[in-house]
Design a protein that fits this description.
Blueprint lengths: L11 H19 L6 H18 L13 H79 L5 H8 L10 H12 L35 H15 L3 H10 L6
Helix pairs in contact: 2-3, 3-4, 4-6, 5-7
Length: 250
Amino acid sequence: MAHSYAGRHRHGPAHGRRHASRSSLAARAIRRPVLTSSLLLAVVATTAAGYQAADGHQTGAAAYTVSSEAIQQANELSDTAIEDSARLAAARNETNTSIAASQEKDRRKAVAAEKAAAEARRQAAEKAARDKARKALEAKKQALLANAQGDPRAAARALLGDYGFSDSQWGCLDQLWNGESGWRYTAENSSSGAYGIAQALPGSKMGTVAADWRTNPVTQIKWGLQYIRGSYGTPCGAWDAWLSRSPHWY
């Protein structure tokens, strides 16, 4: 029984070379960072399957040698993955840019809306203040007119603005009507018949304002301011004319 034993270790060297080829393949794959672990497994599986299908009895290192076609395919897959990643990154950047632009647009709209609202509130507050001041002034004027018999001068001064005269005209009007009637609403010129604070001639002219022209200083003052505006332009114009005449009249 001197026959030789062909046990499982018969192909030991070839088996060792098989392991060496696998290690070499893995090392070469690691040196190519563009290949992922899943692509490396795909290359090895594809290569091994291809050689085993071509020669079912082929063993050893040759059975697991990576072909140039497999490497090229892996590189193409890697390039495609890189391109896909770049497109995805570009798409994400574009989306992020679009979102940022939309947010900035919304922010600017919000800022503009707040400014507009603040301006509207400011204008409303100013209008309310003006209305309040105007109402207070009107209330004061009505009180002065109601007391015109007691203080006709204050009533006349309060009515200046209604006829377009500034308060700077008050001094001229005060002197003019003080010279004409002494500010007495019952003053009557015995020779001419001129009547009232403004000395209308005849006094009935003041009826165009109101029928109470004999007893109401406000009616007389309104008529007198109308007359001055139409004949002399301003109380100071009437005062200058009055001073230039002798005896004085306007």
